[in-house]
TrEMBL record:
PANTHER family: CARBOXYLIC ESTER HYDROLASE. The keyword Hydrolase applies. One of its GO terms (molecular function) is hydrolase activity. It comes from Phialocephala subalpina. Residues 3-477 form the Carboxylesterase type B domain. This is Carboxylic ester hydrolase. PROSITE patterns: CARBOXYLESTERASE_B_1 (PS00122). The keyword Hydrolase applies. Belongs to the type-B carboxylesterase/lipase family. It holds the Pfam family COesterase. Keywords: Hydrolase. Its EC number is 3.1.1.-.
Length: 527
């Protein structure tokens, strides 16, 4: 398949075939640049759009977009280490259904991959069977973006280097979304019918892309609806002053003299190779680099507006709809990600992700007393997994839903909960962990590259029917009749409408973080 983008040239993709039948499934363009490489002097700066002179290829010699996108450099995790990576990773993979587009063009699903904003790649997921075998017919665009210290390093020195000078990974996603809006019609897509979604960190990023899109700093509203799989809005991020110590620790590990001037520090940091930087992370006290309140991509008023209902009112005004939900056993995966062994290490580990005053508030009930005795390592590991799952998903998601529902009607909020997984997941995760974090990708992407049984296909196709209408922008018959209900896949694989058994249990932690955020001094982005 070829696509001609006027003024930018000709791209040639590939038609994907079923491995067994050899029948075509969909078209794919991969490794399609949407920005200049964020390398050299562009490292730790806002991404630059492709210049007007950029060409993807010519009619006589079209650009070949068949190979996987570049993988952003990242530390080893879960035993996985990429042998090939490249900071020049601002590229998208694009899947297109077979056949003629409908009037106005295919709806577009802009999918953001997960991985704690530290790991992962837009090459990992495979929605080809979804487009080939189900009623979900849309163009899927999945961008690569900068991760970890390449995407979310922040400090006073970087702030003085130029503005915006934080949340680079979020700016990458935004530029990819703007590229999609401007160019997707040439692939047969409808730029006025874009859904944004993702899993885990991709869901968290989805929320912040939505918040920016409907906020005061966006030039144009692009997003019409959102998918949030296993994540919500989280809590108000750290201020610049709190992450400065992480930057200083990075300099110390790399041997950059603290007495260097601001320009000298950044010049030296930009001289290190990607491998040297990712290796340094393994020796740092805090290994996760998270978004900060910068007053630019993330408005200081964002969380106050969620708490008082203004954010939900804005979503109502724009007609934004959401599908949002979780799995029953999310914590089983989380508890193994740099798990702590004591109360002190529990508080420190959670401080990688959340402001210290929030961390201390949520962990204080578990602080051992002199008479309580020591707890085994497994206790702290399990507690961390459960607290992390609540903070990332269960509690903050439900609190967010409750807040926006004060103004956003139930017809715009489609809640789900999953206690089931496909048999294909067994080759990666033991059955005993159940429906844990990420196991639902084989549901949403109809196998996600793996085979499904006949009965699984029947059930998942039924589950995806309202999803197809959602993405197309048609009325959705979700089936729930109150905010406390969810569309549920039971452990046996049945689809039911049920009361959310975790609703009352998980909301108190949201209320605690809300109270702590309200009573803490306003975190100004600048030092």
């Amino acid at each position: 398949m070829r696509v001609n983008i006027p003024g930018k040239g000709v791209l040639e993709g590939v038609t994907l075939l079923d491995s067994t039948t050899k029948n075509p499934k969909c078209h794919r363009f991969s490794r399609v640049p949407f920005a200049l490489p964020p390398t050299g002097p562009h490292r730790w700066r806002k991404p630059h759009a492709l210049p007007s002179t950029y060409s993807y290829g010519s009619e006589a010699s079209p650009g070949q977009y068949r190979n996987p996108s570049s993988v952003c450099p990242q530390p080893r995790v879960f035993g996985r280490q990429f042998t090939i990576h490249d900071e020049d990773c601002l590229q998208s993979n694009i899947w297109i259904p077979l056949g003629k587009p409908p009037d106005g063009g295919w709806p577009v699903f802009f999918y953001i991959h997960g991985g704690f904003l530290q790991f992962g790649s837009n090459n990992f997921d495979d929605p080809s069977a979804l487009l080939a075998e189900t009623g979900v017919k849309c163009i899927i665009v999945s961008p690569g973006y900068r991760l970890g210290l390449f995407g979310f390093l922040a400090s006073r020195e970087l702030w003085e280097d130029g503005s915006p000078a934080a949340n680079f990974g979020f700016w990458d996603q935004r530029l990819a979304l703007e590229w999609t809006y401007e160019n997707i019609k040439h692939f047969g897509g409808n730029p006025e019918n874009i859904t944004v979604g993702g899993l885990s960190a991709g869901s968290y990023a989805t929320f912040h892309q939505l918040a920016f899109d409907v906020g005061p700093n966006a030039k144009k509203q692009i997003i019409r609806r959102v998918f949030q799989w296993s994540n919500g809005c989280g809590v108000q991020p750290k201020a610049l002053s709190e992450v400065q110590q992480q930057f200083d620790d990075l300099l110390h590990v790399l041997g950059v003299p603290a007495g260097y001037t601001q320009p000298q520090k950044l010049e030296r940091l930009r001289e290190f190779s990607a491998d040297e930087l990712t290796a340094a992370v393994n020796s740092m006290k805090q290994k996760f680099f998270r978004p900060i309140m910068d007053g630019d991509f993330m408005s200081e008023d964002l969380f106050p507006s969620i708490f008082d209902g203004r954010f939900g009112q804005r979503l109502k005004e724009l007609g934004i709809q959401t599908i949002i939900g979780d799995l029953t056993q999310e914590f089983h995966l989380y508890k193994n990600v740099y798990s702590p062994t004591s109360y002190e290490t529990l508080a420190n580990r959670l401080s990688w992700d959340y402001p210290r005053h929030v961390t201390l508030a949520i962990t204080s009930p578990y602080k051992p007393s002199a008479s309580s005795g020591s707890k085994p390592t497994e206790y702290w590991k399990d507690l961390f997994g459960r607290l992390y799952a609540d903070m990332q998903i269960h509690s903050t998601m439900r609190g967010y839903i409750k807040s926006i529902s004060a103004t956003l009607p139930l017809s715009n909020i489609h809640r789900y909960r999953i206690d089931w997984r496909t048999a294909s997941v067994d080759k990666r995760l033991p059955k005993g962990v159940g429906a844990t974090h990420g196991t639902d990708m084989s549901i949403w992407f109809f196998g996600n590259g793996d085979s499904l049984t006949t009965s699984e296909k029947v059930m998942i196709k039924e589950w995806l029917k309202p999803v197809a209408n959602f993405i197309q922008g048609k009325p959705v018959n979700w089936g729930t009749t109150s905010l406390g209900q969810v569309k549920y896949i039971t452990e046996a694989g049945d689809i039911e409408i049920k009361d959310d058994e975790a609703w009352e249990d998980k909301l108190p932690l949201w209320e605690l973080t809300k109270q702590v955020t309200k009573t803490a001094p306003l975190s100004k982005p600048r030092l």
